[in-house]
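1st attempt posting a full record on here, be nice pls
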Amino acid sequence: MRSIDRRYFLRAGALSAGTSMSGWLAPLATAAAKEPARKRACILLWMNGGPSTIDLWDLKPGHDNGGPFKEIGTAAPGVKISEHLPKIAARMKHVALVRSMTSKEGDHGLATYFAHTGYSSRGPIRYPSLGSVVAKELGADDAALPNFVSVAPFRAFSPAAHEPGFLGPRYAPLAVGESRPLAPQPGSANQAMGVEDLALPGGIATDRFDARWKLAAELQHEFAAERPDPAAKSHHTAYDRAAKLMRSAAAKALKLDDEPAKLRDTYGRDVFGQGCLLARRLVESGVPFVEVALGGAGWDTHTDNFERVKQLSQTLDAGWSALLDDLKDRGLLGTTTIVWMGEFGRTPKINGSKGRDHYPYAWAAALAGGGISGGQALGKTSTDGTAVEERPVTVPNFLATVCKALGIDPQTQNVSNTGRPIPVVDSAAKPVAELLGS
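the predicted structure (as tokens):
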């Protein structure tokens, strides 16, 4: 796989500045997809705020808790989901629903951290985000692009949930844009997808930049040698990664300008849709983990739940369905695991503001693509949606399943900031066998 990467990237570097990357990116993807040793990749579709899964994946028609939405059939026999996800319904053979997620964390910050790391944030250990773990286990140290990219992250609930923890700054994410307004706004997507200061300043030639960088690197090395602390290491790592990316032809993968307009329209001309397209490009270029967030904190629907969920569902339906099709068409779906989840669900009971409140005891998440046995709905909740009745799945078990689908042993250990060996997922966690495929 590395020989393929080098061969294609060297060829890309020989292209003129005005040549579109589309001429070599597709052959790279095709060759990589056929490579027997191709490593897995993961795309996390993160739903900030706690999506109302009772209105998306586990509707309760006929019950007072059910709300106004209707169920529709899907491509998976016997599985019904919201009427506002028709495109996902048509592709349900690729998706495995987990309708029996359960946890005890009902606070946004604690639950966001828990869902990203599999561990509670209490105590002195700084646990790494799943993206950082995957970057370490599946990423290449000499990769031109970062091994973990986070698109439009919303970090207000829990900044630590988006950090590499004790794995160190080498495995921190490259953030592409930050959170955007609740309602996707036309024209905002191109701005959100940009990486600030990626191009060289005006009037600075490459050779001049390289000379400046060499001098700066020497000074940083001397400084770090005298002060071997995490802050100095983090500073040096950040600058080194930035300079490497600025000089790399692979940085073109972060730009969407050479994608066909029709395809961009299919994804949706909003931050989430274009973020899903960017995720495909990054996975295609060898990035092992991409997180794409939807809606800022928009899923926190304490008021006007149904109208807001309807709007967000339309955005989700377009972006996710296009991503599934695009990955499949390029031969990448079989090696790319897609995770859909938020930090918890919403209360089955509708409050006085036509909203739903935090509810971690019974909710849903979904998996699709590589390593997943799609076309099924695992678990069952009670008729009123308040309790899990069959096959409860905890957050650590769910994350262990993701790791297993990616070919990562969930019990792989890393040394923490306290000197203790810590497994990727809690040692008591077990992958859910029914969800795993080839």
